[in-house]
C-alpha cells in the first residue's frame, strides 16, 4: 500500500484586494462594454471591418479587466492523500452454516470472495487507497485474510454497531468506501430492518458508498430450538410451564420429538408437528419442582439428516427452585400436650404450611351409629399420605406415632427413599415411638441417628418416666439447632436454666456419623456413653432428627411460668426445621457464583465462604473444588479440580476461564470443626444468544445499506464497485508570476481603444 508521491502543478489565482462584489461588478461592466460595441457594429456593411473593430474593443477591455483582477500564476507541489477502504467480514456463528449439499461454509465462501477481489484491491491501492480488513460479530477487530480462515465464533452479528465503531476509528481520516460481506443476519439494533435512526446518521456522516455482498444459500434445511420461555424462579410443589419455540426451515411437513431433560436425566418428551417448509411451533412442558435448588434443564430436538447446523438443536437453561413455605406433615399417635404446643406453633408460623393427622381410631374400629360422629373420626389415609402426596412435603414429623396398627409399614421403604433423596424426618419420643413403636426393625431403622438394636418394645429399657435436665454436648454447644444465642456462655446458661423434662426413650447407641446435641445427665447407652436426648444425622441427601422425649413443651409453657420468656420451645423447633430442610442460611460451607448464566469467553467468578458452627468465619479452611458437566450423571470424572484456602474473613475467590458452552456443576468439599461439608452450584455457559435462532440468510438489510449510500449490492462476489477519489492537497509553492503587473499592458489597452475610436470616426460611426 504505497502512498502517492508529490507532483509539480500550477494554478491561476486572483491577486486583487477588491471585494468580491466589486470584482463581479467590474466583470459585468466589461461584458456590457463588449456587448454594446457589438450592437453598434450590427449595421456595418463591411463585415471584416466590423469584426476587426469588435476584436479591438474586446482585446482592450480584456487587458483592462486583467489589470483589475490582477491574476497570478502559481507553480507548486501537490499530493494526493491516500484514503482508506474498509472491508468488514462477518465472523458470527451463523457464518458456520453450510449448504445442504455439504459444500463450503459461509465463512469459507466469504474468504473466497475476499481472495477473488485481490485484483480490485490492488487497483485501488495504485489509485491511492489503502484497503483495511476487519472482522465483526459482537465487535469490530482488525484482521487479515489468513486470520479469517479460523472458525466463526462471534455470539452476535451487529452490523449497525460495527459501522458506528468504524466511523469512530476513521474520525479525522479520509474514508473512500466500505465493503460489508455478511449473511445479512443482524442480531443488533437493526434486526430484520429497516435501518434504524442511529445507523442512518452513521452512514450519512461517513458520506461514502457502502457496498454489500450477501453470502447465503438458495435452499437450507435446519431445525432449531429458537427460544425457551421459562421463568428464572419457581416454587417447590408449584406446577410451572416451560415453553419453547421450535423453528424449521426447508423441511417437509413432519413430526419430531422434543425432549426436556434435567441434570442429564429425561423429564418429559413431546411430539411437535411441523406444518411446512418454514414453520414455527410452540411446545410446552409441565413440571412440578419437588425440592429447592438450582437445576439445569435442556430442551432438545433430534439432528436431522442434511441439517445446516446441529448446535442450535438444543438450548440449556437454569431454573432456581425456592420454597415459599415449608410444607410439614405432622402425624401424631395420640393427643398430648407436646402435640398441642407443637401444632399450635407450626400453625402460627407464616413460613410453614402444616398438614396434621391425629390417630383417634384404626380402620378396624367399629363405625359409630351417629353419622355426625363419623364425620369427625375417619380412617387414617395412609396411602394418600405416604404414597400419593409424600414428595409434596419438605418435612415429616412422627410425634409419638406407632405405625404398626395403621398399615403404614409397607410404605416405610418409600419414606426412607424419600429422605435419602433429600427429604427430612423428625421423630419425637413417647410411649409409642422408637423401640416402643417398632422402628428398630423397620425400614427407617438405618436412617435414624440412633441404634435401637436389642431394645425391647416395653419396659424401663425401652421408656422411662424419670425427671431430668438434659445437658448440652460438645456438638450441641455450636450446632445451629441448639443455638438459642450466638454467645456460647449465654447459650449454655439458657439451656441450664430450663425446667426438667419427664420421660425418655432408651437407645442402644448413636449410629456412626450421628451427633448427640443434648444428653441425659445420668443414663448411659449400651456402649457406656451418655444417653442421647436429641440426636441428628445426615441420611443420604436428607436429614433426620430424634428427640427422645415428648415433654419438650416444658421449654415453653413450664419455662414461661418459671419466669423465662417461654420462647425456647419455639426457637428450638424453628432452628430444627431450618436445619432439617437445608436452609441455605445455615450452610457452613457456601459456594456462590456472581451469576448463573455466562456468555462464552466470560470468566466465571466463584466465591467460597466457610463458617464455624457458631457462624464465625472459619479462616484457613482448605476447600477442594471440582467442576463437572451437569448434563452427565457421572461424578467420578471432574473436568477440573481446584483448591482454595479461605482467608481470615472465611472467604476466598477464584475464577474459571476458558469454559466451552454447556451446563456445569461446581462442587466444594471441606472439613470444618471435624465435620465434612459439601456444597454445589450449577451454571450455564451460553453457546449463543439469538445468533442461531434463525440461520436463514437475509438480504434486506444489506440491500438497504447499499441503496441508501449509493453503493452496490451483490451476492457471493464483490464485483468492481466505485470508491471516492483521494483528496489532493498543496504542500508548497515554488514560484508566483504576476502576469498583470507589466506597465505595457495598460499602454496597450489605451492604444487599442484609441485605434478603435479612430477607425470608428473614419467609418462614420462617431
Main features:
766 residues; alpha/beta; Rossmann fold; 5 domains
SSE layout:
Blueprint: E1 7-14, H1 20-40, H2 47-69, E2 71-81, E3 83-90, H3 106-116, H4 118-126, E4 129-136, E5 140-142, H5 159-169, E6 175-182, H6 197-206, E7 210-214, E8 222-229, E9 233-235, E10 240-249, E11 254-262, E12 265-274, E13 278-287, E14 293-300, E15 314-322, E16 326-332, H7 337-348, E17 352-358, H8 371-376, H9 382-388, E18 395-399, H10 412-420, E19 424-428, E20 450-451, E21 463-468, E22 471-472, H11 488-496, E23 501-505, E24 509-510, E25 515-524, E26 530-539, E27 542-547, H12 557-561, H13 568-580, E28 589-593, E29 597-599, E30 604-610, E31 622-629, E32 640-645, E33 651-656, E34 662-672, E35 675-686, H14 700-709, E36 713-715, E37 727-738, H15 743-763
Parallel strand pairs: 3-4, 3-6, 6-7, 7-36, 9-15, 16-17, 16-18, 18-19, 19-27, 29-35
Antiparallel strand pairs: 1-2, 2-37, 4-5, 8-10, 10-13, 11-12, 11-14, 14-15, 20-24, 21-23, 22-25, 25-26, 26-27, 28-30, 30-33, 31-32, 31-34, 34-35
What does it look like?
There is one protein chain. This protein is of the alpha/beta class and 766 residues long. It has five domains: 7-80 and 730-763, no CATH class; 83-104 and 116-168 and 182-219 and 697-725, von Willebrand factor, type A domain (Rossmann fold, 3-Layer(aba) Sandwich); 222-318, Immunoglobulin-like (Sandwich), CATH 2.60.40; 327-582, Rossmann fold; 596-686, Immunoglobulin-like (Sandwich). The protein contains 15 helices and 37 strands. It has an eight-stranded mixed β-sheet with strand order 17-16-18-19-27-26-25-22. A six-stranded mixed β-sheet has the order 5-4-3-6-7-36. A hairpin with a 3-residue loop joins strand 4 and strand 5 (140-142). Helix 1 packs antiparallel against helix 2, helix 2 packs antiparallel against helix 15 and helix 5 packs parallel to helix 6. It is elongated, with a radius of gyration of 46 Å. Mean pLDDT is 83; it is low at 1-5 and 362-377.
Amino acid at each position: 500500500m504505497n502512498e502517492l508521491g508529490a507532483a509539480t502543478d500550477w494554478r491561476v489565482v486572483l491577486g486583487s484586494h477588491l471585494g468580491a462584489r466589486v470584482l463581479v461588478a467590474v466583470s459585468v461592466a466589461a461584458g456590457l462594454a463588449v456587448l454594446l460595441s457589438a450592437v453598434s457594429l450590427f449595421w456595418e456593411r463591411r463585415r471584416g471591418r466590423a469584426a476587426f473593430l469588435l476584436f479591438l474593443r474586446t482585446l482592450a477591455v480584456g487587458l483592462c479587466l486583467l489589470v483589475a483582477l490582477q491574476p497570478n500564476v502559481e507553480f507548486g507541489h501537490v499530493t494526493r492523500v491516500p484514503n482508506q477502504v474498509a472491508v468488514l467480514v462477518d465472523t458470527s456463528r451463523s457464518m458456520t452454516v453450510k449448504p445442504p449439499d455439504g459444500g463450503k461454509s459461509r465463512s469459507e465462501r466469504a474468504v473466497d470472495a475476499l481472495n477473488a477481489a485481490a485484483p480490485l484491491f490492488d487497483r485501488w491501492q495504485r489509485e491511492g487507497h489503502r484497503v483495511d480488513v476487519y472482522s465483526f460479530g459482537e465487535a469490530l477487530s482488525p484482521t487479515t485474510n489468513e486470520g479469517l480462515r479460523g472458525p466463526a465464533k462471534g455470539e452476535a452479528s451487529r452490523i449497525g454497531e460495527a459501522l458506528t465503531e468504524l466511523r469512530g476509528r476513521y474520525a479525522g481520516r479520509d474514508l473512500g468506501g466500505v465493503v460489508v460481506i455478511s449473511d445479512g443476519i443482524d442480531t443488533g439494533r437493526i434486526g430484520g430492518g429497516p435501518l434504524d435512526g442511529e445507523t442512518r446518521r452513521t452512514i450519512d456522516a461517513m458520506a461514502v458508498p457502502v457496498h454489500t455482498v450477501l453470502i447465503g444459500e438458495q435452499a437450507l434445511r435446519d431445525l432449531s430450538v429458537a427460544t425457551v420461555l421459562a421463568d428464572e424462579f419457581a416454587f417447590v410443589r408449584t406446577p410451572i410451564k416451560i415453553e419453547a419455540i421450535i423453528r424449521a426451515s426447508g423441511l417437509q411437513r413432519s413430526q419430531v420429538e422434543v425432549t426436556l431433560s434435567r441434570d442429564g436425566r429425561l423429564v418429559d418428551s413431546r411430539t411437535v408437528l411441523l406444518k411446512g417448509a418454514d414453520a414455527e411451533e410452540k411446545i410446552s412442558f409441565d413440571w412440578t419442582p419437588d425440592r429447592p435448588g438450582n437445576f439445569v434443564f435442556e430442551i432438545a430436538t433430534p439432528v436431522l439428516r442434511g441439517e445446516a447446523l446441529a448446535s442450535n438443536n438444543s438450548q440449556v437453561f437454569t431454573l432456581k427452585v425456592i420454597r415459599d413455605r415449608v410444607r410439614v406433615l405432622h402425624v401424631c399417635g395420640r393427643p398430648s400436650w407436646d402435640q398441642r404446643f407443637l401444632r399450635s406453633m407450626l400453625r402460627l408460623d407464616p413460613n410453614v404450611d402444616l398438614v396434621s393427622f391425629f390417630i383417634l381410631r384404626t380402620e378396624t374400629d367399629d363405625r359409630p351409629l351417629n353419622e355426625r360422629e363419623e364425620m369427625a373420626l375417619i380412617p387414617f389415609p395412609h396411602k394418600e399420605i405416604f404414597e400419593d402426596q409424600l414428595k409434596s412435603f419438605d418435612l415429616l414429623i412422627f410425634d409419638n406415632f406407632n405405625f404398626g396398627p395403621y398399615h403404614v409399614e409397607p410404605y416405610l421403604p418409600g419414606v426412607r427413599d424419600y429422605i435419602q433423596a433429600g427429604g427430612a424426618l423428625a421423630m419425637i419420643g413417647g410411649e409409642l415411638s422408637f423401640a416402643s413403636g417398632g422402628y428398630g426393625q423397620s425400614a427407617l431403622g438405618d436412617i435414624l441417628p440412633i441404634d435401637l438394636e436389642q431394645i425391647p418394645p416395653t419396659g424401663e429399657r425401652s421408656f422411662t418416666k424419670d425427671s431430668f435436665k438434659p445437658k448440652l454436648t460438645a456438638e450441641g454447644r455450636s450446632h445451629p439447632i441448639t443455638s438459642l444465642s450466638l454467645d456460647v456462655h449465654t447459650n449454655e446458661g439458657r439451656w441450664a436454666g430450663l425446667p426438667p423434662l419427664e420421660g425418655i426413650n432408651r437407645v442402644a447407641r448413636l449410629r456412626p456419623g450421628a451427633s448427640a446435641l443434648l444428653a441425659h445427665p445420668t443414663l448411659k447407652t449400651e456402649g457406656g456413653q451418655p444417653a442421647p436426648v436429641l440426636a441428628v444425622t445426615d441420611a443420604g441427601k436428607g436429614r433426620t432428627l430424634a428427640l427422645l422425649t415428648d415433654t419438650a413443651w416444658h421449654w415453653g409453657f413450664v419455662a414461661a411460668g418459671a419466669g423465662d420468656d417461654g420462647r425456647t420451645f419455639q426457637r428450638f423447633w424453628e432452628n430444627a426445621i431450618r436445619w432439617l430442610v437445608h436452609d441455605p442460611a445455615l450452610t457452613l460451607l457456601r459456594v456462590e457464583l456472581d451469576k448463573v448464566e455466562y456468555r462464552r469467553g466470560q470468566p466465571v467468578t466463584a466465591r467460597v465462604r466457610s463458617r464455624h458452627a457458631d457462624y464465625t468465619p472459619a479462616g484457613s479452611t482448605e476447600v477442594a473444588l471440582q467442576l463437572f458437566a451437569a448434563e452427565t450423571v457421572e461424578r467420578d470424572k471432574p473436568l477440573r479440580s481446584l483448591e482454595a484456602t479461605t482467608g481470615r474473613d472465611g472467604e476466598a475467590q477464584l475464577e474459571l476461564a476458558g469454559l466451552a458452552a454447556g451446563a456445569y456443576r461446581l462442587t466444594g468439599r471441606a472439613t470444618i470443626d471435624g465435620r465434612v461439608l459439601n456444597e454445589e452450584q450449577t451454571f450455564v455457559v451460553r453457546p449463543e444468544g439469538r445468533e442461531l435462532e434463525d440461520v436463514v440468510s437475509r438480504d434486506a438489510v444489506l440491500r438497504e445499506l447499499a441503496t441508501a449510500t449509493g453503493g452496490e449490492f451483490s451476492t457471493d462476489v464483490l464485483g468492481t464497485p466505485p470508491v471516492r477519489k483521494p483528496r489532493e492537497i498543496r504542500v508548497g509553492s515554488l514560484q508566483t508570476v504576476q502576469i498583470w503587473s507589466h506597465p505595457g499592458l495598460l499602454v496597450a489597452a489605451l492604444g487599442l481603444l484609441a485605434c478603435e475610436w479612430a477607425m470608428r470616426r473614419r467609418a462614420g460611426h462617431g
